[in-house]
Amino acid sequence: MTTENQNFDSIIIGGGVAGLSALETLNKMQHNVLLLEKAERCGGLVNSDFDQDFLLETGPVAFLKSYKHTTEFIEKIGLSEEVITNVPGNDKRYIYRNGELHALPEGPLAFFKSKLFSAKAKLRLCLEPFSPRPNQSEESVYEFGKRRFGEEVANIALDSMVSGVAAGDFKKIDVNSLFPKIATIENKFKSFLLFLLLFKIKSTEKSKDNKSVTFRTLKKGMGAIARHMEQRHNKHIRFSCEALSITKNNGYYTIQTCEGDFTAKNIVLATPAFVAGKLLANIDGNLSVLLQKIPYGSITTCLMGYPKESIQHTMDGFGFLIPRNQKVRILGGLFSSNLFPDRAGHNHTAIKVYIGGAHDEDIQNVSDQKIVEIVHEELSRILKISSCPIYSHVNKIENAIPQYHLGHQSIKKSIYQALAKHPDIFLLGNYLEGISVNESIKSAENLYSAEKN
Description:
Blueprint: E1 7-13, H1 17-28, E2 33-36, E3 48-51, E4 54-57, E5 63-64, H2 68-76, E6 83-85, E7 93-97, E8 100-103, H3 108-113, H4 119-125, H5 141-149, H6 151-166, H7 175-178, H8 181-189, H9 192-206, E9 215-218, H10 224-232, E10 237-238, E11 243-249, E12 252-257, E13 260-269, H11 273-279, H12 285-291, E14 296-307, E15 319-321, E16 330-334, H13 336-339, E17 348-356, H14 368-383, E18 391-402, H15 408-419, E19 425-427, H16 437-452
Parallel strand pairs: 1-2, 1-13, 2-10, 7-15, 13-19
Antiparallel strand pairs: 3-4, 5-9, 6-9, 7-8, 11-12, 12-13, 14-17, 14-18, 15-16, 16-17
Helix pairs in contact: 1-16, 2-16, 5-6, 11-12, 12-15
């Protein structure tokens, strides 16, 4: 694409989901806008490709049905007919412990019947309504879990959750940053057992005759969003155009790129925090330093394909997670082809496995072949697989997920205070208010209200 006009109302840097959502919003507001993407295509980590009848998803494979902003965005760009839901009832989560997969209990009654936890842990949970209040302003996920539910539940359930959501260390992650609803529930209901019991009753009443449908995706994968947006807004996107630095003069920003300079009244940074920080070094040194304080974690994914008949486990769920105290290297896996159709070839099964994260950063230096061997050996033991994989694909992603460590709330507050001095700079993405795709889209939609004000 060539662009004769190098002067714009707004320039968006970064063509991931947040940047694409911002492009849709600003176009709707009739802005003269340009999006700069350093790669040959948009999407960031949200990309999909077919390879030998297997669907490769770089990032998330689905989104929750409850994700309002994601659903509305897909409707707005005209992709509603491409949305599919998980196979009804196939949303069970498993946790691996003591050599077995156990279904994660969905309520207090299921918890007490489950073999996942010991009798001691179940007795300790009975004391949950009488748990003390936190004695400090911030608390790690581990500290929160130990205080409310006891050591065993914290080490099994909450450690697994943090691995699944952020591939992080639950002793370093701030509970209220990663799980912001926690404080609301604790203040309103006082007891999580009571909350879960009430939630279970309500959800049962709503779906007495229907098996649950929890997840949604698109027929050709989540990457279909980016492919559609590239066509929808092609004349507003410059590919293979990396922003190198930003300066400001006479109320206008100049973005230096490998393809020349562009100027704009407003700058929308839809990049990882550390990239935004480096780009803003000439604009605001304090804001630049603050953004680069947010740590990121790497993750490696491995898509494994097997003949269906070689797997003994029913895989009747979303997938499984593994606590770090089980001494298994993989973090967990998603039953991709059991969740959605056309994720693997005929009579084949696709499993997306996660490995690495905060507890195993060295995996990034291991060869792809060795990673496949590790994953196959552990996966075979967990799912009782009797054959070698017929397909494998390893994807190492550095700086993939922002880590909301203790102190995140303080950094976030300081970033917003610094940003208030620059009403023409907008920060989008998943490093401030939530790491999900939904939060990235939500951050871009807020541009509308910000611009109006």
